[in-house]
């Protein structure tokens, strides 16, 4: 069965550094998402992406965050200047038709020191 | 706006016993509801979904959930727990818009299965 793949599985970075989290969604999917889960807290929506543009974003997704689909297969989340509170598990997801379930990757654990 | 409440952050069951995980939602429109499972060091895997068809939904691994509109609930059950059911379970409600399917998750319930 096709899977959403995320790299790296773990990322450690210093405060203030830029990080790029990478995702390869399922190939025929049209909708792409990033969620995050801070340790011990709920899974939170960050952003959705459709037709090469952001379709919705949460209040968490401020100017430090950006998403891109650079080459038709990858979907990336960039954090420009990481803060300690950005430490979390970041999940990429994709879906095909609009009302189909989201398929999630295994996540990237980001630790900001 | 929609929200999801899962009663009990931790549930402990004996192997072979009934598993019952509670989920209540609020939504301004008819909801789509989902249960996801997260095994250690893995992503979120879809267990089952309710999308306004049958109110009793069967999923993978012997799980099922019943949508009760009058109670705004979508509780997850499995008649007989197996050791492999130890995981964290998330209930989620979906608001489907033209440009995306945004999920709002509950806080999760971690299931421990005792031999």
Keywords:
heterodimer, A: 113 residues, mainly beta, four-stranded antiparallel sheet, 50% strand, B: 115 residues, five-stranded antiparallel sheet, 0% helix, 60% strand, globular
Query: What oligomerization state is this entry in?
Result: heterodimer
- The proportion of residues forming helix of chain A, as a percent range, comes to under 10%
* Rg of chain A computed from alpha carbons, rounded to a whole number of angstroms: 13 Å
Overall SS class of chain B: mainly beta
Q: Based on CA inertia axes, which overall geometry of chain A fits?
A: globular
Order of helices and strands of chain A: EEEEEEEEEEE
* Shape label of chain B: globular
Which residue ranges of chain B are poorly predicted, with pLDDT under 50 across at least 5 consecutive positions? none
| % residues in beta strands of chain A | over 45%
Alpha-carbon distance between the two ends of chain A = 37 Å
Q: How would you sum up the major sheet of chain B?
A: 6 strands, mixed
Distance between the termini of chain B: 41 Å
Discrete helix count of chain B:
0
Can you write the helix and strand succession of chain B as a string?
Answer: EEEEEEEEEEE
* Number of helices, counting only DSSP H or I runs of 4 residues or more of chain A: 0
Average pLDDT metric of chain A: 93
**What is the number of beta strands of chain A?**
11
Number of strands of chain B: 11
Round the Cα radius of gyration of chain B to an integer and report it.
14 Å
Mean pLDDT of chain B: 91
